[in-house]
Design brief:
8-stranded parallel beta barrel, about 40% helix, alpha/beta, binds ligand PBG
Length: about 325
């Protein structure tokens, strides 16, 4: 017998040496929630271990992430007041923009400070864009808001804007606004292939979403693989510096397609429901928590992700040291 694949599995050292993929702290991005007016961190019941930060706990968590070598943080704001146009998103004193300034100062260049660019946290109807007179999503009016939001975030010091609203033309619109204002170094992450997913469930609690109904007229249909590649290609053509596939675990085929075709880095978002499932099963003693976490993120990297947004970023980075 010549072919004995088991030779390379014989010892821990041999397995380590011959591993095709591995996790690294720099490839991990920590999503964080900052709640306006909070004096203490507020737990999110459907995401055990994740909180809505106060500004103080936020600073400590950034220091911890940076010390662990995490590559970046992605910020989401939880405002006290919402309205139809999501005005808190473009207010320099809005919670996300305030938190961004705090993060940039706290991080001191040790990791990349990134911001979610989407209106849903700030609108009273909970949609990612603004509505027209008939209550339908107004794509092009939403782009006008995104342009202003991009400038507010870039002014606050965000280094990379995560365009997660799934409006057509959003990358081109934001790139144009940034160039016009001289923000030529602000990078754009296009949430290119973002699917209308049940796995965002716990996130809705995390940001206290006001959404009724769903996002199926703008987020993608989970049935579609080819269309995922089309969205990736459009975002790259519009000037995205990085593209995203989201969620991760149920869309590894789309991720592999994107990784094979994309000329820019491809990231994946291990979303709130993916986190919650593993935490819940582990809490019941049904799976080995650490092994399941490592395997889930490694699988996302193996499928082609250059970096992974995961709520376990700091914890995993700590294990890797
Ligand atoms: C939209 C946004 C969502 C998530 C990230 N950005 C919610 C949605 O599209 O409904 C979900 C992330 C997660 O579930 O962890 N701003």
């Amino acid at each position: 017998m010549i072919d004995r694949p088991r030779r390379l599995r014989a010892t821990p050292a041999m397995r380590r040496l011959t591993a095709e993929h591995r996790l690294h702290p720099a490839d991990l991005i920590l999503p964080m929630f900052i709640r306006e007016g909070a004096s203490e961190p507020v737990p999110i019941s459907s995401m055990p271990g994740v909180v809505q930060h106060s500004l103080d706990s936020f600073k400590r968590a950034i220091t911890d992430a940076a010390a662990a070598g995490v590559g970046g943080i992605m910020l989401f704001g939880v405002p006290e007041h919402k309205d139809a146009t999501g005005s808190g998103a473009t207010d320099p004193g809005g919670i996300l923009n305030v938190a961004t300034r705090v993060a940039v100062a706290e991080a001191g260049g040790a990791l990349v400070v990134q911001t979610d660019l989407c209106l849903d946290e700030f609108t009273d109807h909970g949609h990612c864009g603004v509505l027209d007179a008939d209550g339908r999503i107004d794509n092009d009016a939403s782009l006008v808001r995104y342009r202003d939001m991009a400038l507010a975030q870039a002014d606050a010091g965000s280094e990379l804007l995560g365009l997660s609203g799934m409006m057509d033309g959003q990358v081109a619109a934001v790139r144009d606004a940034l160039e016009e204002a001289g923000h030529t170094d602000t990078a754009i992450l296009g949430y290119a292939a973002k699917y209308a997913s049940a796995f965002y469930g716990p996130f809705r609690e995390a940001v206290q979403s006001s959404l009724e109904g769903d996002r199926r007229t703008y987020q993608m249909d989970p049935a579609n693989r080819r269309e995922g590649l089309r969205e990736i290609e459009l975002d790259v053509a519009e000037g995205a510096d990085v593209v995203m596939v989201k969620p991760a675990m149920s869309y590894l085929d789309v991720l592999a397609d994107a990784a094979a075709a994309s000329p820019v880095p491809v990231w994946a978002y291990q979303v709130s429901g993916e986190y919650a499932m593993i935490e819940a099963a582990a809490a019941h003693g049904w799976i080995d928590r650490r092994r399941a976490i490592e395997e889930s993120v490694l699988g996302i990297k193996r499928a082609g992700a250059d970096a992974v947004l995961t709520y376990w970023a700091t914890e995993i980075a700590g294990w890797l040291r």
